[in-house]
Design goal:
This protein is of the alpha/beta class. The protein has eleven helices and nine strands. Strands 1, 2, 3, 4, 5, 6, 7, 8 and 9 form a nine-stranded mixed beta sheet that branches.
Length: 290
């Protein structure tokens, strides 16, 4: 699985989670994207679609990072809740940074006809997503897929080139599984630009927890970091829970809510990633959903 990216693993987890629900749109999008991902994707889908394959995937997960697929589901449930509430409360734009093969943008664009949705990702990922949506006949008129290099380019410059984007509109920004692949100066620059250049921003994002000074999941095994390095996707930045408010404050943001990894009845199955909701300092907003 050396050529399988983390975005493909997230998509595969979405497909497997929706087994028995053929009408699940997010799983249909993830499956269509996986089919277009190259030589490794048919093998990954065959594992997800067969009982022996699922047993093998469960064994690999147990050896590498127990609970990872369930963690993705835990994370996505909360992001969907926060994003849906923001749209109800008046967000006119949704900006998905590093959208990958997720179906949230398409779902919210279809559910809220006046919502403008902008997805930013690498050129190859955007091309795959656009082709997958075309194959599925999904064409929300206010969904915009934009290619950019998040490691080396200013995403807001890409948005400024898009006539449909209006920085004056209330905007929810979602950066799921993105900041850990940036250095702290890069992450700080991104968050600061969002806080400074958008009129009414709210930001939902994830940041890795640090253990012994290194970013990572609490239950990951020793070979996870070498695998990520070989994939060209090493975790570069993380923080302690107590550091997060001050780090966000340095970006002009105020921590509004933090998903509790030990929530009674629905704990994070693989803790080690902080999921938070932040607003620009000085902005007023409704209380976060629980």
């Amino acid at each position: 699985m050396s050529s399988v990216s983390t975005s493909m693993l997230v998509a595969a987890a979405t497909v497997q989670r929706a087994r028995g629900d053929p009408g699940a749109e997010d799983a249909a999008i993830a499956r269509a994207c996986l089919r277009l991902c190259g030589d490794r994707s048919p093998g990954l889908l065959s594992l997800v679609d067969s009982a022996p394959g699922r047993i093998l995937l469960a064994l690999l997960e147990r050896l590498l990072l127990p609970g990872l697929r369930a963690h993705y589901a835990w994370r996505k449930r909360r992001i969907a809740q926060w994003a849906g509430q923001a749209c109800t409360d008046g967000s006119a734009q949704l900006l998905l940074i590093g959208a990958g093969y997720d179906g949230l943008g398409c779902a919210l664009a279809r559910r809220h006809p006046d919502l403008h949705v902008f997805e930013l990702d690498r050129e190859v990922s955007v091309a795959i997503k656009r082709r997958a949506l075309e194959q599925l006949g999904l064409h929300p008129p206010r969904l915009h897929l934009l290619a950019t290099d998040l490691m080396h380019a200013d995403p807001l410059a890409t948005l400024r080139d898009c006539n449909e984007f209006d920085a004056a509109r209330p905007t929810l920004c979602v950066a799921e599984g993105v900041l850990m692949y940036l250095s702290w100066p890069q992450a700080r620059a991104l968050l600061s630009r969002l806080a400074r250049e958008l009129a009414s921003p709210a930001i939902v994002a994830t940041a890795m927890e640090t253990r012994d000074g290194l970013p990572g999941f609490r239950r990951e095994h020793a070979w996870v970091r070498p695998w990520l390095r070989r994939r060209g996707e090493p975790f570069l930045w993380g923080c302690d829970r107590t550091e997060l408010p001050a780090l966000l404050g340095a970006c002009g943001l105020r921590l509004q809510a933090l998903a509790d990894p030990a929530e009674p009845g629905d704990p994070d199955p693989s803790p080690g990633e902080w999921l938070f909701l932040a607003q620009r300092i000085g902005a007023s907003g409704a209380a976060p959903p629980h």
